Amino acid sequence: MSYLTNFNSETAKQILMDIIRCVNQPENSKKLSEAKASAGKEMILMMQHVFPLVMQLQLEVIKGHGFPGNREGLVQFSQLIREMERDDMEIVRLRSQIRAIYLPPIAINTTNDILI
């Protein structure tokens, strides 16, 4: 668990940027585009086709930074990132970029605060 002793906001930003770079590599970008095309605008299909690809890419990146390359490592990394979001808007921005890959935008009626 030595990766935790060196984990700070700069490390978090670097890992998030590495994830974005990994996702944008031509081969990965192509796979994600194909998965998104097959899912269309259906949220359930996005979660079945796109989400697992993004999680796999994240696992590969965080493993390279010392985190366990499994579900627990990903959960641990995500929890650390969420804690750091409270104090760092750049981390919020980077995480939002990653989430936008697998979470399509949701239209919200701001007048009544309801989803449409």
UniProtKB/TrEMBL annotation:
InterPro entries: P_C10. It comes from the Eukaryota. Pfam families: P_C10. One of its GO terms (biological process) is post-embryonic development. Keywords: Cytoplasm. It is found in: Cytoplasm. GO terms for cellular component: cytoplasm. Its main location: cytoplasm. Belongs to the UPF0456 family. This is Protein C10. It comes from Drosophila mauritiana (Fruit fly).
